[in-house]
Amino acid sequence: MASVLIVFIIILIQFAIELYADCGRPGYSRHSMVTEARHRYADGKWVEYRCKTPGNSIIYGYGYRKCEGNQWTYSIPKCGQKLSSSKVKKYIRDEVIVVSTPTPTKLVGVRIKIAARRDVDIEVDDVKHLPEPNCTREMRPEKDTYFSRNFVFTCSTLIADTTELRLSNFIIIQFTTSLVCPPTCKSTVEQVELFTTGRDDCYIPDRPDYGSSRLVKVNETEYSSNEIRHEFNCNPDFQMRETRENYDYCPTGGDWQYPQLPQCIPVSTCKLPDIPENVIIDYTDLFQRNRYVIGGVIKYSCPETATLSGSPSQECLSDGSWTGTKPRCIAKPNSDQKSNLSTYLLISVFVSFPIILLLAVILIVVCIRQKRQQERSGLSSISSKFSTKSRGLPAKPTDDKDEKGNPRYSTLIRNEYHLYDDVENDPNYDYIQADQINQNLSEEVKYDVPKTPAVQKH
């Protein structure tokens, strides 16, 4: 039973180590820097170092470091300072170059520039009197010269702890091709530079993931003692897991001791939200194993063929929830769909236009017919008033006196508003037809006297 419990505890420890295997910011020396500086790095990530003044300095130690299990591999590299050209001497014999200085010092590297013809290839064969050398070659072509190829060889030591270096005043480099110009002149040495440790001490140590370091002052000054000490702290909303040491120190002129860095555990986290597969997620540095710490931000985007709907980013809150709304990507209509839509619209226009034109013609014809029927019905109503049979009037007497005194005649002057009103309302009069009416309204018209009713026989 005890063995099973021990195995279970070991598995939990391995899982915890894997869960928090990412590394914090790597340290650097006074004159070196990290090319890609970030707050934290995923497990297996490599970082590269370079000097702040690359022309007058050279990286020694391992210029590349890797994050493995919450720790950075190798020591923090440093930058060697170039010696004055007046203090550097060179001696060339066939394939060998000897670079020396009159005063012994801790040499950390050498840089040699060689010009050669196009058909000449040069490599470093051996380096002596430089501990654990590491050489690189860089080619810089030149135009319109006899020596059309330039080789720059940089050799430096992989030891960063200056206490392990010995005093020396020369370095020997052997190449694969003769460097003596006469009589063939296939190549020539143009420049030789020698580098020493200088004063590049420890500056900032490696820091834990989600943590930082703080310089601990000794005797009220930063460098008054024989060592530099930094104390580790965790970021807000994180707490430090129990550890034996929460600091690192570096002896003056030496190297950091690289203890096991403490682990900073988040106090509260947010679970990664359920996001559709077609949404592109941009994780920030605070992302860790499908969980986000407080203040962590997720940014969303969509492919070119879709449009983002919802919040473009979400932030992890202290209560474990996320701000904003859930994003999703809505597909855009492609070019084929757009062309099909245009075709459908064009066909619908050609089909619907004749139908609309035909309906308009039918509507116009119906309106014209209705108007004509209304006009005909109006004329028929007027003519019905004068539809009774007319009878002839007696001849007009020649004597005006007889006309006026004759009771058989009566005179009626037509007016514009009442057309024979007294006659129309009397059934004993015969009416004059409408076509027999004189258009001159001032003309006098004679009407016969009322008919004598017929005497009925008994």
From TrEMBL:
Report disulfide bridges, numbered on this chain: C302-C329
Where in the numbering of this chain does the Sushi domain appear? Answer: 21-81, 200-266, 268-331
What InterPro entries does the record point to?
A: Sushi/SCR/CCP_sf, Sushi_SCR_CCP_dom
So which residues are the signal peptide here? 1-21
Biased-composition ranges, Basic and acidic residues, are: 397-406
Q: Which SMART domains match?
A: CCP
Alphabetical UniProt keywords: Disulfide bond, Glycoprotein, Membrane, Receptor, Repeat, Signal, Sushi, Transmembrane, Transmembrane helix
The record lists the membrane-crossing segments as 344-368
Name of the protein this chain belongs to: Complement component receptor 1-like protein isoform X1
Origin species: Dinothrombium tinctorium
